[in-house]
Write a structure and sequence with these properties.
alpha+beta, Creatine Amidinohydrolase, Arc Repressor Mutant, subunit A, 3-stranded antiparallel sheet, 22% strand, cytoplasm
């Protein structure tokens, strides 16, 4: 049948209407276009945005192996404990000028508070599980590997971008610092031991340094309490313009207010006079300033922007340590002298140290881990040439017991932030 003209125009209109309805859907057929023939109104074609499913925040595993970025999806990590400055610096908290300085600092990629806080959150979570995991009867190697494997997983280790900050210190009893098991060490933790656990995390060279002490019978509880209190005093009294020698005096006063009774004999708790806290540089665990534990005449001041490890050690012994035992800790010296290296093995080892650790501290187990072998001769040669620094274990007299606590603090323009503070210490 041939359509009449009127019928043809009706058919044409029906066709246009069908086309209009077809245009209500986008090319993928899953989004209505606003302002179409069906919707009327605005003639502009707009797609309704599909809602993207939200990423689900991960939970930490036990043992800890979930990367921290999968838990804090927005990349913003918890701020540490905030303490206002005291006395002459109390004005900083409300100063508009200092608030502006801090805002500029937060926007500076070289300052990167988030890197520091990311390292701190890794430390808190790893130590939370480690404190439940560590028990007498375990080998020190088991304990070190538990902590280091957790650190590497949570910080999502990436070469020198982020990883372990320094070897895990597991110093027992009269040994106060710088002990970690070398390969083949079979030392077993005993129920009467006083164990110092000192480990670090770094993100882009910003090192978080924090330590605690564990004991499993009550004899040395007062020793542990004394050292924790001394560290808290150091943290509280630290601040911009504080002189390091005076800060040491506050720490000493707190520590010496405690005593420990052992088998009916009373021992005063002594600060270990030749150990100290320290400032921290980028990829540099000891940044140049030291906080001794006994009052002294050091007039050096803490300054705005300083990043410090407030670290205290107490002892029931003589209160002084000496080097003792096989060395495990080393680090490449910053600005080491350019001297001839005669041993081929030492040249090769130095290249490996530079590639894998830079100027971060390392231990012999870490050299084993990156595939080095038969390296002791070369390592000792690098030490002798002043290119690598060795850090042997530091011990008080036999029979003495030592304890340690440590926090990392940041002297921000407006407030003091105790980066490593947690619910545990």
């Amino acid at each position: 049948m041939i359509a009449k003209p009127e019928e043809a125009s009706v058919a044409a209109l029906e066709k246009e209407e069908r086309v209009g309805h077809e245009e209500e859907y986008d090319s993928e057929g899953d989004g209505v276009i606003e302002g179409s023939a069906a919707g009327g109104g605005d003639t502009k074609k707009k797609k309704k945005k599909k809602k993207k499913p939200k990423k689900k925040r991960a939970e930490q595993s036990d043992p800890p192996r979930t990367g921290i970025s999968k838990i804090f999806l927005n990349g913003v990590y918890p701020e540490g404990e905030i303490q206002p400055y005291k006395d002459d610096n109390a004005w900083r908290t409300t100063s508009e000028e200092k608030k502006y300085t801090e805002k500029m600092a937060l926007e500076d990629p070289e300052v990167t508070y988030q890197n520091i806080r990311r390292a701190a959150e890794v430390h808190r979570q790893v130590r939370h599980y480690a404190r439940k995991y560590i028990r007498p009867g375990m080998s020190l190697t088991e304990i070190a590997e538990y902590i280091e494997n957790g650190t590497r997983a949570l910080v999502e280790e990436d070469g020198l971008e982020c990883g372990v900050g320094f070897p895990t210190g597991l110093s027992r009893n009269n040994c106060a610092a710088h002990f970690t098991p070398n390969a083949g060490d079979t030392t077993i933790l005993k129920s009467g031991d006083v164990l110092k656990v000192d480990f670090g995390v770094h993100v882009k060279g910003r090192i978080l340094d924090s330590a605690f002490t564990l004991t499993w019978e009550p004899t040395y509880d007062k020793l542990v309490e004394a050292v924790k209190a001394a560290t808290d005093t150091g943290v509280k009294e630290a601040g911009i313009d504080v002189r390091l020698g005076e800060l040491a005096g506050y720490i000493q006063e707190t520590m010496e207010s405690y005593e420990v009774e052992v088998n009916g004999q009373v021992f005063p708790v002594k600060p270990i006079e030749n150990l100290s806290g320290h400032s921290i540089g980028i990829y540099q665990i000891h940044g140049g300033k030291s906080v001794l534990l006994v009052k002294n005449e050091d007039q050096t001041k803490m300054e705005e922007g300083d990043y410090f490890a407030i670290e205290t050690f107490g002892s029931t012994g003589r209160g002084r340590v000496v080097e003792s035992g096989d060395c495990s800790h080393y680090s490449k010296i910053i600005n080491a002298p350019r001297v001839p290296i005669r041993l081929t093995s030492a040249k090769s080892l130095l290249k490996s140290i530079t590639t894998n650790f830079g100027t971060l501290p390392f231990c012999r187990r870490y050299l084993d881990r990156v595939g080095e072998s038969k390296y002791l001769l070369g390592l000792n040669h690098l030490v002798q040439q002043g290119i690598v620094q060795d850090y042997p274990p530091l011990c008080d007299a036999l029979g003495a017991m030592t304890a340690q606590f440590e926090h990392t603090i940041l002297l921000r323009p407006t407030v003091k932030e105790i980066i490593s503070r947690g619910d545990d210490y």
